[in-house]
Design a protein that fits this description.
The chain is α+β, with helices and mostly antiparallel strands. The protein is built from 12 helices and 10 strands. The protein has a 5-stranded antiparallel sheet. A 5-stranded mixed sheet has the order 7-8-6-9-10, with helices on both faces.
C-alpha cells in the first residue's frame, strides 16, 4: 500500500514537471540511446518549425534530420549524406554547444548533454534550443563596427603622415577597433588574427607552449534578470579589469561574446595555465559590490587546454570548451581541464 502511494506520488510529480517544461521559453528534447525521441515540448517544435504530422510518437532523430535536409536547412549537398553525417555524430553522445542559423535567418543556441544511469552508462541525450537571433544580430553589428574601425585605422596607416596629432588619432582608432567597449579586453575579431599568429609560432617551435583558459559567468542571465543589465555590465567590467591586471604583455585576454571570456597564455603549459585559471577563479569569487548589489555573489566555470602541434584554433577552442562543460556538469564554480592525451580524443 505504501509503495503504491509512493508510486502514485512520483507519477503526479513527473506529470507536474512535464507540464512545467511545456511552458519553458526554450525548446527541449530527450532522445534515448537508439536516437528515438522520448520527449519534446511545444517550444522545440516552434523553434525548429516542425509540423505536428512529423512529431508523432516513435519519431526518430534521423526522421528530423531528413526533414531538415530535404527542405534545405543544411545547405546544398546530398540530403542522405547530410543525414548520415549527422547521425554518425549523434551516436557519439558528446556534449556540445553551438549556434545554428536556420534558412529563415533565425539563430539558435543549441546545447546538448548525454544522460547516464547510476553505472555511468549513456542512456540518451537531452538538448536545449534557445532563440538568440537578437543577440546574434547585435554581436554581428558590433563586429561590423569593429571591422570598419580597423579599416579606418589601416587607411590612416597607409597615408603615413608624419604628424604627432595624427599619430594619436591612429592609436585611438586602433584601440577602438580591437578593444571591447565594456571590458577593455581584446575583441573576438582581434583574437582570431592574434591567436592564429601565436599558434603558428608554436608550430615552428613546439617548445614554446601555449595554454588557453575559457570561462563564463555562472548564471549570468539571473544577474541581468534580478539586478538589471547595468549590474551585468558592471560584472563584466570588473572581470575585464581583473584580467587586464593579472595578464602579462604577451597574453591575449578576450571577451569572446556575452559573458564568455578567453585568455591565450604563451609560454605556459597545462599545469601553469591551470594555476593561472585558479587564481582568476579565486579573485572573481572574492569580488564584492556596494549598495543594492552588496549581496550579489559572482562565480565562474572555467576550462583549460594546452595547444597541441598540428591543432587548429577551432580545435583548441573546442577542447577548452569541453573542459568548461565538464566544470558546469560538476556543479559550476570550478576549473576543469583534460590531460593532453585525453583531450585529443574529444
Amino acid at each position: 500500500m505504501v509503495s503504491e502511494t509512493r508510486e502514485r506520488g512520483m507519477q503526479v510529480g513527473l506529470a507536474d514537471l512535464l507540464r512545467a517544461i511545456q511552458y519553458l521559453p526554450v525548446g527541449m528534447s530527450i532522445i534515448d540511446r537508439d536516437l528515438q525521441f522520448r520527449f519534446w515540448n511545444d517550444s522545440f517544435c516552434q523553434c525548429l518549425d516542425f509540423p505536428d504530422s512529423l512529431m508523432q510518437p516513435g519519431v526518430l532523430l534521423e526522421d528530423l534530420f531528413r526533414f531538415n535536409a530535404l527542405r534545405g536547412e543544411f545547405g546544398p549537398g546530398d540530403p542522405e549524406r547530410q543525414v548520415r553525417e549527422r547521425i554518425d555524430l549523434a551516436r557519439q553522445f558528446v556534449p556540445h554547444r553551438f549556434r545554428r542559423t536556420r534558412a529563415d535567418g533565425t539563430v539558435l543556441q543549441v546545447t546538448g548533454r548525454p544522460m547516464s544511469d547510476e553505472r555511468g552508462r549513456v542512456m540518451g541525450f537531452v538538448t536545449i534550443y534557445e532563440d538568440v537571433t537578437t543577440e546574434a544580430r547585435q554581436q554581428q553589428e558590433l563586429e561590423q563596427a569593429h571591422r570598419k574601425l580597423l579599416s579606418a585605422y589601416q587607411d590612416l596607416r597607409r597615408v603615413q603622415l608624419d604628424n604627432s596629432a595624427l599619430e594619436k588619432d591612429r592609436s585611438k582608432y586602433y584601440q577602438l577597433a580591437v578593444r571591447d567597449a565594456v571590458t577593455g579586453l581584446y575583441t573576438r575579431h582581434y583574437m582570431e588574427d592574434a591567436a592564429a599568429r601565436l599558434l603558428q609560432q608554436h608550430e615552428r617551435d613546439p617548445a614554446e607552449r601555449v595554454g588557453l583558459l575559457v570561462f563564463d559567468v555562472d548564471r549570468f542571465k539571473q544577474i541581468n534578470d534580478n539586478h538589471g543589465h547595468l549590474a551585468g555590465d558592471l560584472v563584466l567590467q570588473r572581470i575585464g579589469g581583473l584580467l587586464n591586471s593579472h595578464t602579462r604583455r604577451i597574453d591575449i585576454a578576450v571577451r569572446h561574446g556575452g559573458d564568455e571570456f578567453a585568455v591565450f597564455l604563451p609560454k605556459l603549459d597545462l599545469q601553469h595555465s591551470l594555476q593561472f585559471a585558479e587564481r582568476v577563479h579565486s579573485e572573481v569569487r572574492s569580488m564584492r559590490f556596494e549598495g543594492a548589489l552588496s549581496a550579489m555573489e559572482i562565480s565562474i566555470s572555467a576550462g583549460v587546454a594546452e595547444h597541441q602541434p598540428g591543432e587548429t584554433l577551432g580545435e583548441l577552442l573546442q577542447r577548452a570548451d569541453a573542459a568548461l562543460y565538464a566544470a558546469k556538469r560538476a556543479g559550476r564554480d570550478r576549473v576543469c581541464s583534460f590531460p593532453a592525451q585525453a583531450e585529443k580524443k574529444l
